[in-house]
Amino acid sequence: MDSKIWYNGEIKDYDKVKVPLLTHSLQYGSGVFEGIRAYETEKGAAIFRLREHVERFVNSARIYRMDLKHSADEISRAIVDVVKINGLKSCYIRPFAFFSSDAIGLSTTGKETGVCVVAVPFGQYFGDKAQKGVRCKISSWRRINSDILPILAKASGNYLNSVIASNEAEAAGFDEAILLSKNGYLAEGPGENIFLVKDGKLITPGLEADILFGITRFSLLELAESLGIEVQERQIHRDELFTCDEAFFCGTAAEVTPIVNVDGIKVGSGNVGEVTKKIQKTFSDAVRGKLPEFRDWLTYVS
């Protein structure tokens, strides 16, 4: 990949940065990361909720006792610099921190860390299905919970749970998986939070379902309030997926993606619903700087 990245405080060529094959985080999944988007606006590229993403990145590192050696402000500046130096109008940004030691052993005490920021052009995660809607399978695998791993940390190893659920769904002919919590309630997608629509109200799982508190999810709660849409955060039985009027995923990569079928059963009419369309359109306008009330979500690259 012919691009510039930020690595341990310096701008470097992507293909010139090397790490050992025995790097702890490659062997054991002990890295932490963020997924951030920058969108094209009339004022140039704008990074969506930079402060909140960096804050979660720092907190993920803290949970895993990882010394980033760079402040939140330094990392934020690095993200802006990488988007700018690569001349990207819109992109996906991946800050990543990892234990760079190649010494064999599980303990990370005293191990060196590496921190990088990479930005790449990126379109719609689900392609044309981002507008038409995706077909989902309720996974036989349960969402990890905080008795097992810290679910509020966006850690690399957590996503093995997501990988195995996604692979199962795709092997069965579906587009994406839906995971239940350990208690059998609706949790989230492999890389997305989930919302249902019933009688004009939005319903979404809360923290008790062991979800990652997504920044896009949080933004949609604000957006729904501005639109006068009532939101319920509560435990959701799996069968509510079959009786709701609409459903959609949300996340940095997925943005707002309609769900039109679950386990072969149509969600509502089987078409993208009006509430979903309204939220999808309003979110798209907000992240592109078209709505003044949400411009504080954006950090402009100039």
Give a description of the structure.
This protein is of the alpha+beta class. The chain folds into two domains: 4-120, D-amino Acid Aminotransferase, Chain A, domain 1 (2-Layer Sandwich), CATH 3.30.470.10; 129-287, Alpha-Beta Barrel (D-amino Acid Aminotransferase, Chain A, domain 2), CATH 3.20.10. The protein is built from eight helices and 17 strands. Strands 8, 9, 10, 11, 12, 13, 14, 15 and 16 form a nine-stranded mixed sheet that branches. Strands 1, 2, 3, 4, 5, 6, 7 and 17 form an eight-stranded antiparallel sheet that branches. Strand 9 (176-180) and strand 10 (186-188) form a beta hairpin. The chain is globular and about 50 Å long. The protein starts with a strand and ends with a strand.
Estimate the mean pLDDT confidence: 97
CATH topology description of the largest domain: D-amino Acid Aminotransferase, Chain A, domain 2
Order of helices and strands: EEHEEEHHEEHEHEEEEHEHEEEHE
The backbone outline, from C-alpha atoms, is: globular
Number of helices: 8
Number of strands: 17
Architecture (CATH level 2) name of the largest domain: Alpha-Beta Barrel
Briefly characterize the structure:
The chain is of the alpha+beta class.
How is this fold's topology laid out?
Blueprint: E1 4-7, E2 10-13, H1 24-28, E3 32-33, E4 36-41, E5 44-48, H2 50-63, H3 72-85, E6 91-99, E7 113-120, H4 129-132, E8 134-142, H5 159-171, E9 176-180, E10 186-188, E11 193-198, E12 201-204, H6 215-227, E13 231-233, H7 240-243, E14 246-251, E15 255-262, E16 265-266, H8 274-287, E17 298-300
Parallel strand pairs: 8-9, 8-15, 12-13
Antiparallel strand pairs: 1-2, 1-7, 3-6, 4-5, 4-6, 5-17, 6-7, 9-10, 11-12, 11-14, 14-15, 15-16
